[in-house]
Each structure stands twice: as structure tokens, then as C-alpha cells.
Write a structure and sequence with these properties.
single chain, 88 residues, alpha+beta, two-stranded antiparallel ribbon, two-stranded antiparallel sheet
């Protein structure tokens, strides 16, 4: 999983920023436990890039993605905006 986490950490589109213990903003790093993965982005472009990395990893290493376990959700603080979609 370290290879996947390292690859996901290279995605810099739409990062989620968190306040570190030194009171500096830093990018939220992807994380995993057992067979669960958490990767976050603030926009659809970043989320798609993360999904592309996971998909490529699965192809190369022969893993299957359990579609029933996939979750995408929107957390929004402050000014509300419409969720970006590619549908017309």
C-alpha cells in the first residue's frame, strides 16, 4: 500500500488543507488501514485524479475495486456552492 499512498500523495489538484500542530496549513495525506483507503480532494478534478491513480494501481498490481464500498461525499463549510458535475 505504500506505493499507492506515495502515488496518491503526488496528486496536487484540489488538495484538502488542514491545520497542523505548528499552526501551519498542510495538505491532508491519504491514509489506509487494512483494505480501506481514504483519499480526499476539494473538487471534482482532484477527486478524478485520485481515482485514476487508484485505478492504475489496481490494474498494475491485480487488485479489484469493490464498488459497493466506494463512498464520495461533500462536506461544506461557509458559502454553499453547487457540486461540480460533468453531466449536462
Amino acid at each position: 500500500m505504500d506505493i499507492l499512498l506515495t502515488a496518491l500523495d503526488q496528486v496536487n489538484e484540489d488538495p484538502v488543507l488542514i491545520l497542523g500542530p505548528d499552526h501551519q496549513l498542510r495538505k491532508l495525506q491519504p491514509g489506509c488501514f487494512a483494505d480501506d483507503l481514504l483519499a480526499a480532494a476539494t473538487g471534482s478534478k482532484g477527486l478524478q485524479q485520485l481515482a485514476d491513480v487508484v485505478s492504475a494501481f489496481c490494474v498494475v498490481f491485480g487488485f479489484d475495486i469493490k464498488v459497493a464500498k466506494l463512498r464520495a461525499f461533500l462536506l461544506q463549510w461557509g458559502h454553499e456552492q453547487d457540486l461540480e458535475t460533468d453531466q449536462q
